[in-house]
Each structure stands twice: as C-alpha cells, then as structure tokens.
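Subgroup meeting minutes
Present: P.N., E.W., G.H.
Scribe: E.W.

1. P.N. recapped why we're keeping a running log of single-chain structure predictions: easier to compare across weeks, and new members can see raw inputs and outputs side by side.
2. G.H. added today's entry (167 aa).
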Amino acid sequence: MPTANVKAIAESTREKLKTAIQELETFLNGYALPQLTNEDSTKESIAVHAGLLSDLRHLLVFSEVAYEKLGAILRRPNFDVELAERTLYEVYHQCVNAFFYPKNEGYSEDGRYAYTGQDAIRFRAKPVRAVRDVVLNVSRVYEELRDDLSYYESEYLTQRRMLGQSK
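Output recorded in log:
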C-alpha cells in the first residue's frame, strides 16, 4: 500500500479512536454497576451489565494503546510504513474485534439490520439507557474503522507472507 495512503489511514484511524475513547471514558468515569442496576434488578440483568462494563473497559484500554501507538508513529520524522501497517492490523484485530465480539456477549451485531438504517446492535438483556446510548454511539465509530481497515482483516497477512516467501 502506498506510504501516503497508509499515513492517511493511520491519521483517520487515530481521530476515530480519539472519538471512541472520549465517549467510553466519559461513560466509564460516570457510571458503576450500582448506578446501572437497582435492588429490583434480576441476577441476569446484573450479570449482563457487569459484563458490559468489563467489555467496555477492555475496549477502552485496547483503543487507548492503539491511539498512543499511532500517535508515536505519526510524530516520527520518517514515517515507518511497516510499523504503521502492523499497528493498523492490531487496531482491527484488537479494537474492532473487541467491540463486535465482546467477551461477555452483552450485545451482538445482527447483520440483518445493517442495511436498513436501523441499529444493528442487539442486546442480550434490556440495558439501561446510558449503556444503550454509549454502545450505539461507539458502534458507529467501530463500524467506520471496520470498513476503513478491512484490508487488515486478512489481506495484509497474506501479502506479508507472500513478501516473506519471495525473499
């Protein structure tokens, strides 16, 4: 991939991560499990909300690490294309996948809704409004990242392997 293109994608990815980080950080700094549940909450609802909080904390950490790596790469006097591509690959496989395949499965993406204009995110149990809002808001960012970085899903590794074999 041309250097200018990789640099533009790295810059764009960093800005999108910044948006997601701000949204996640604001939410996680403002809410804890007791605020999202009450004494009437079922065990399943409490478990779902606890899992969602855990998944969002992991997503925040992955996103912050990627944001910092991209920042360091972009500040270098000589842009390192290989390092940038490896980092973009990590963004796809850590951040994007962490969002769309959360460990605790508090929500999932239903592809049938992706092209209808409706939200494709479906929650396992009805979340409180604040949880629903933050997940749907950051879903737009991670959808854009998934589209922007689709090359790094599988083609990047295939190309790296082919380059390694031709040397």
